[in-house]
Specification:
- The structure holds 3 protein chains of 3 kinds.
- Chain A is mainly alpha-helical.
- Chain A contains 6 helices and no strands.
- The radius of gyration of chain A is 21 Å and the shape is globular.
- Chain B is built from 3 helices and no strands.
- The longest helix of chain B has 33 residues, at 59-91.
- The mean pLDDT of chain B is 87.
- The chains are: A mainly alpha, B mainly alpha, C mainly alpha.
- Chains A and B meet through helix 1, helix 2, helix 3, helix 4 and helix 5 of A and helix 1, helix 2 and helix 3 of B.
Chain lengths: 162, 104, 582
């Protein structure tokens, strides 16, 4: 029962997130979606990732969005999409139905609700390559943002002097 | 309602997230909306990992994979938003069509 | 020990490329210094690999089940070619200090040169076919970037694109061969393939053999792909010396030499290889005779000498072909670098405007003459020994008609070479030119090459041991000392080519008396100037590629929505295939 409510909530909040006219409202609906997804993770037994998803998705990313939207400014959202909307809808519906068809053909699915014995810490020794990649990604992200922020400054300085 | 198997419900929510995410990416012209769509898509993917882990009993391995995906996607969001802000400064608009100057 | 050295030989030039780019174009002297240091270090590392040559795999990095292991083997053929690539690369970089003095965007130049040197060393050191293809394409990319270095000159850009397209068409042959090898024998390691070539069914073996022949012909500018090399002469002269004389064009010959034990029994393969070699040698020699651009003559001469090497492989003597490759790299690099010194100082490439340069640039004149004598095959110099060995092998292993044509081509070689030397260095100046003196770095680069052209043949004993059964177990090259070489070469069949060469030289000396004969061949001259129609084929390939690229560019939108359309569309197509297939 809880599952059905959470799933319905996720669908509703996602649709609201993309249909809002104002970007700030979209960001808020995205945060709510993150919270519901984190709840779903917890219900499925992945406790640690639920916590991380809640803090990162509903916290960090939302704060970033609010910052960016404030700096970039809202703008007229009435622009027509590049491709006709029915085409987009049609493609998505076809893809989803094919996926459902394939999943149902795949056989029965049973749910195990108890976590396994190992803790994630032990598994990190197997997946250390992932840790290295994540560290590399974070490094690249920091460098990228620093690069972008510094590019903005000389332009504005030149404009001030001109 | 209680007779519906839980995996099907979870698959429904995965597909709905993925579907809404893809639709948003296909049908929007605002750069920040693109990043919102990407976030939704990746949440669906992470949920798929967790469901898979649950079904095979290896929840913790699935947690590490989902964590990697979430970290990568957060960094993409960070850089994407920084890019969007820069584009707004340079071009004055957040329209993705204004970004493309490919000769066709 | 070999492990570290192999990593150094490939990695040092690449590190140097990064270092030169980081140094920035505002510090020109630092860029020159860094490039020279890294190139010399790579050369030293390559030479240090000599004592530890063996046939066993040195590095083996596992890359999953699909791509097999990334293996590197330091056997004789690899080490020899990597020494040539790095040492001549270092000399070309030293030469560039003077030649590229004051040029803009020097960082881009040195970065690509160093990147190329590392990739060439990697190409010969690896034994995984996929890695070989990867390095092959990197050398093609660097060649394009360096030919079009002066990218505001439309001729240079056109020459670069032409070279890129034609060598890439050849690369397709290599990739096809690699994939077929993997599909039929389950591994990408060519040493396993060479050990028993019969694990591959005979039809596929034939496709492999001829595919590799096409790849080698495209890369080494052999018949019918020989017109990209003369157009690539828009590159700066050190590049022509390094890439288009001493290293990249040798990659095709290396491919044939490496796979010779596996393909030698494929029906008609050896005949095809010999035919390609003979035709290239002959046609290029005729085209060299009528050309007036100094570098084009040298380019045609390169094609012709590569034809000799290919002919030797077809005739069955891999040793003779590799020995000639060794000599040719030395004297051809010498010729290109000294031609570069002449062009840099005089300011034009047109031989009809030169003449009497020898009086102004005596050092360059002498080293050029040494290189020319080696090219012609005058006794004592290294070209003589290797060319005679090729002709001996051809006499034993091929038909007499091919032998006769190759001997005639040797005479033509003498004729166009002495014509080139005469028109540039002797006689009276035919136009007003100012000859700048040649810089010290150029002289430092030219001197060792000239010395090597005189004495490199003395190393034939060590060379044969390098390629012997210890390191190349499948090629069957027996040890071969100097005395055996003397015995083979200083014998009766050698007198015929020597006589033809003498005839060639005499023909030039008495050219005014023979002008009537020359007039009778005017139709040939016209054909040669239009490169016998092969230019048409190659231009056709280039034009077709460019037209299809223009057409396909319409699908490259910059908008994420359309790009995602392709993604979602592909998902739908794949899922549909799975759904129906299930």
């Amino acid at each position: 029962m809880v599952y059905v409510l959470v799933a319905a909530g996720i669908l509703a909040c996602a649709i609201l997130a993309i249909r809002s006219k104002r970007l700030l409202v979209s960001a808020i609906w995205l945060a709510v979606t993150s919270a519901l997804v984190a709840l779903m993770f917890y219900l499925l037994g992945a406790v640690q990732v639920a916590v991380i998803e809640l803090s990162v998705g509903a916290g960090l990313v939302t704060v970033l969005f609010v910052f960016a939207i404030n700096i970039a400014g809202e703008e007229g959202m009435e622009l027509e999409p590049v491709m006709p909307k029915p085409l987009a809808w049609g493609l998505v519906v076809i893809a989803i139905s094919l996926t459902i068809y394939l999943t149902i053909m795949g056989g029965g699915l049973k749910l195990i609700l108890s976590p396994s014995a190992d803790t994630p810490a032990i598994l990190w020794s197997d997946r250390y390559l992932d840790i290295l990649l994540q560290i590399g990604l974070i490094f690249a992200g920091v460098l990228g943002v620093l690069g972008f922020l510094s590019e903005g400054k000389p332009e504005t300085q030149k404009k001030d002097q001109a | 309602m209680n007779n519906l198997p839980v995996p099907l419900i979870v698959i429904f929510s995965i597909l709905s997230l993925a579907g809404v995410g893809f639709y948003c990416l296909l049908a929007t012209r605002n750069m920040i909306k693109v990043i919102i769509g990407l976030q939704l898509l990746v949440k669906g993917v992470a949920m798929a990992f967790i469901l898979g882990g649950n079904l095979t009993g290896q929840v913790n391995l699935a947690q590490t994979l989902a964590l990697t995906v979430i970290v990568a996607d957060t960094i993409v969001a960070v850089i994407g938003l920084a890019l969007a802000v820069q584009v707004r400064h340079r071009l004055g608009t957040l329209d993705i069509k204004a970004l493309s100057t490919l000769k066709r | 020990m070999s492990l570290i050295l192999i990593i150094l030989v490939i990695g040092l030039p690449w590190l140097g490329a990064g270092a030169v780019l980081l140094a920035g174009d505002s510090h020109e002297k630092l860029q020159h210094a860094l490039a020279v240091v890294f190139a010399l270090a790579a050369g030293a590392a390559a030479v240090l690999m000599l004592p530890s040559v063996s046939k066993s795999t040195v590095i083996s990095l596992s890359a999953g089940t699909v791509f097999g292991n990334f293996t590197f083997v330091a056997d004789g053929l690899s080490v020899f070619l990597s020494i040539i690539a790095t040492v001549i690369g270092a000399l070309a970089v030293i030469f560039s200090i003077n030649y590229m003095h004051g040029e803009a965007q020097l960082g881009r130049y040195y970065a690509f040169v160093l990147f190329f040197i590392g990739a060439m060393a990697g190409l010969v050191l690896t034994s995984n076919m996929l890695l070989m293809f990867f390095f092959w394409e990197i050398t093609a990319l660097c060649s394009y970037a360096l030919i079009s270095f002066h990218n505001d000159d439309p001729k240079a850009v056109h020459g670069g694109i032409k070279a890129l397209i034609i060598t890439s068409v050849g690369g397709v042959g290599l990739l096809l061969g690699a994939i077929l090898l993997y599909l039929t024998s389950g591994s990408l390691d060519y040493n396993q393939f060479l050990a028993n070539p019969h694990t591959v069914p005979a039809g596929i073996l034939g496709v492999l053999a001829f595919g590799f022949l096409i790849a080698a012909a495209a890369k080494s500018a052999q018949f019918p792909f020989q017109t990209w090399l003369p157009d690539a002469m828009e590159a700066p002269s050190p590049i022509s010396a390094l890439i288009h004389a001493a290293t990249m064009v040798n990659a095709g010959v290396y491919l044939l030499a490496r796979f010779y034990p596996a393909f030698k029994d494929v029906p008609y393969w050896r005949e095809a290889v010999m035919a390609v070699g003979v035709l290239s040698a002959l046609l290029a020699a005729i085209m060299a005779l009528v050309s007036t651009d100094l570098k084009r003559v040298l380019a045609y001469s390169t094609v012709s000498q590569l034809g000799y090497m290919v002919y030797a492989i077809g005739a069955g003597s891999v040793f003779a072909s590799q020995f000639h490759l060794f000599s040719h790299s030395i004297f051809k690099a010498l010729l290109f670098l000294s031609a570069g010194a002449v062009i840099h100082s005089v300011g034009t490439r047109d031989m009809t405007k030169m003449g009497g340069v020898g009086k102004k640039l005596p050092f360059v004149k002498w080293v050029f003459i040494i290189g020319s004598l080696a090219l012609v095959g005058i006794p004592i110099l290294n070209g003589f020994w290797s060319k005679e060995m090729i002709l001996e092998a051809g006499l034993k292993g091929g038909s007499i008609i091919y032998y006769a044509v190759m001997v005639f081509t040797a005479g033509l070689t003498a004729l166009y070479t002495i014509r080139m030397v005469w028109m540039v260095f002797y006689g009276e100046p035919r136009s007003d030119y100012h000859a700048h003196p040649v810089g010290l770095a150029m002289k430092i680069a030219l001197a060792p090459l000239a010395l090597a052209a005189c004495i490199s043949w003395l190393a034939v004993g060590r060379f044969s041991l390098l390629l012997g059964p210890n390191s190349l177990p499948f090629h069957g090259i027996a040890p071969f000392g100097i005395s055996e070489m003397f015995h083979d070469v200083v014998s009766l069949p050698t007198l015929i080519p020597l006589a033809v060469i003498a005839l060639g030289i005499l023909a030039w000396v008495f050219r005014s008396k023979l002008s009537g004969l020359a007039k009778a061949f005017d139709w040939l001259r016209w054909l040669a100037e239009h490169s016998f129609g092969f230019e048409g084929i190659n231009s056709g390939i280039v034009a077709a590629t460019e037209a299809s690229a223009e057409g396909l560019s319409y699908s490259q939108t910059g908008v994420i929505s359309w790009n995602l359309l392709y993604v979602v569309g592909t998902i739908i197509i794949f899922f549909a295939i799975f759904a129906i297939g299930a």
